[in-house]
Amino acid sequence: MRNIVFLHPDLGIGGAERLVVDAAVGLQSLGHKVIIFTSHCDPKHCFDEARDGTLDVRVRGDSIFPPSVLGRFSILCAILRQLHLVLQVFLSGELSALDPEVFFLDQLSACVPLLRLLYSRRTRVLFYCHFPDKLLATRKSLVRRLYRIPFDWLEAWTTGLADALVVNSRFTASVFHEAFPGLRGRRPEVVYPCVDTKEVLGKKTVGDEKVEIADGGGFGGGDKKVALSINRFEKKKDVGLAIRAFAGLTEKEREEARLVVAGEFIVALAHSTCFSSGCGLTARAPWTDIRTTTEKGGYDPRVQENVVYHKELVSLADSLGLKSATTNNFITSLSVPADINVLFLLSIPTSLKSSLLSTAMLLVYTPSHEHFGIVPLEAMLSGTPVLAASNGGPLETILDGKTGWLRPPNAVQQWTAVMRDVIFERPAGELRAMAKAGREHVQREFSEQKMAERLDREVEKMFEAPRQRAFTGVDIGKFVLGVGISVGVAAWGIVRVWGG
Questions:
Q1: Alpha helices in 227-349 (DSSP H)
Q2: Coiled coil located at which positions (predicted)?
Q3: 326 forms bridges with which residues in the sheet?
């Protein structure tokens, strides 16, 4: 068994943080000794395992560099905080006392050269790439493009120094080589994120004769059948596709059904802004976003995109002759008139999300080129089939015709046809079979145990394969130069912003 040290920027609540916690718990369950170092972990805003003693979580490197400067430059601050964390635990002797054999990094690869320099012979470094940061960053102006140059170079170079590269899907693996053409000789391995398969979401029982096809409950106005969309209110999620597909049903069919559009209560927004739009000169501090999104859910009235896109969706429904209503919580949703075709639930807590999934007849998952996508797994685990775009992560999670359907995002009529089939035409026995197949598929391929086994296999492969090339004085020079240029560019940006 190995001594494994995790290094994570901010152990809050989000998709990346959920994966890190699951990975740590899974490897620990296999007998490895696991310690997590992070620059920030608020007990009020983290997953249970990070605060209840399940995991050994230690906060270090939080005393010199702030998460942002003037509410911006989050990527530079994140890099400096990570380097501070590593140096602090090394110089204090705390890290050496743990005798690390494996470093598990995600999101940020900046400290890989430092780890190679300090522990070049004894340890291996595994880097988990959720998605290349350089593909997430915005570059709408010349200033932003110039600002990103040293960070993009630093990301590519430091990522290539890791002993093992792991990604969350084959789709991410394909874009990895587009982002880092200099690493075409490296083939990232795929380790899928997992869902909690120990508990079936909601109250639906699947896989036996006790299955009852849900009628929508309160969300459907009592007797309406529900098609469900769960996503953040962001234009890239293409929720309008679900509305257009629902509008394609006949008037009589729409009277018997309802489309529920729910804002996903998750802090993935914070993760995406942390190293995407948050990487530019106008970045909002990602740690502020984490706190905000945890409280507000998938719709935050202070985020302009959320507000504007919700209004666009309401206008779209109106233009298609659909009556819509918007509610902020479950209680107010129960009083929505029966003739409402589209119900917007701005934000949903986990408990309501489970109920929605268990009562819906179909999950309509509209994002295109999604990196992975956890919601379809949660839906299949609850016994709800999924209709998703035939690209990106869903190609790897949904078995077309067996646990759901994959359709081109520009073929609205095909999406309407699937809705009609599931809600009105397909025999209950076939839906029961799909519910059973979906749950078994998730338990077989996306369980915590499966993820832990895959990670364990990647850890051992690092020690079986030859080490990545030796770390030289030239590399040290590159590292110092790269960080120095990044700091210089950021300093120029600060002066430019401060000066108006």
A1: 240-247, 251-255, 268-274, 286-296, 304-319, 330-333
A2: none
A3: 344
Q: Which residues contact 188 (CB under 8 A, 6 or more apart)?
A: 129, 165, 166, 167, 172, 173, 176
Shared-domain flag, residues 115 and 244: no
Q: How far, in whole angstroms, is CA 473 from its chain's centroid? A: 37
What are the backbone dihedrals phi and psi of residue 376, each rounded to the nearest 5 degrees, phi first?
-60, -35
Provide the 3-class DSSP secondary structure of residue 109: coil
* 33 beta partners: 3
Neighbours of 292 (CB within 10 A): 17
Task: Supply the range of the domain harboring residue 154.
Answer: 3-194+449-498
Residue of 93, 200, 97, 181 whose CA lies nearest to 135: 181
| The token pair that represents 127 in the structure block | 């880097």
**Rg of the chain's alpha carbons, rounded to an integer?**
23
d(CA 93, CA 321): 67
> Residue 89 in contact with residue 126, Cβ under 8 Å?
no
- Residue at 201 is within a domain: no
Q: pLDDT tens for residues 158-179?
A: 999 999 999 999 999 999 988 9
Task: Please check whether residue 205 lies inside any domain of the structure.
Answer: no
Instruction: Tell me the C-alpha distance between 230 and 234, whole Å.
Output: 12
* Rounded CA separation 214/266 (Å): 25
Contact 432, 211 (CB under 8 A): yes
User: Is the distance from CB of 116 to CB of 471 less than 8 angstroms?
Assistant: yes
Q: Note the pLDDT tens digit of each residue in 179-229.
A: 999 888 889 999 999 998 876 544 444 333 333 434 444 555 557 899 999
Question: Could you tell me if residue 419 is inside a domain?
Answer: yes
What residue ranges in 64-138 does DSSP mark as E strands?
Answer: 102-106, 124-129
How many folded domains does the chain comprise?
2
Q: What are phi and psi of 312, to 5 degrees?
A: -65, -40
pTM exceeds 0.70: yes
Do 462 and 438 belong to one domain? no
142 and 237, same domain (yes or no): no
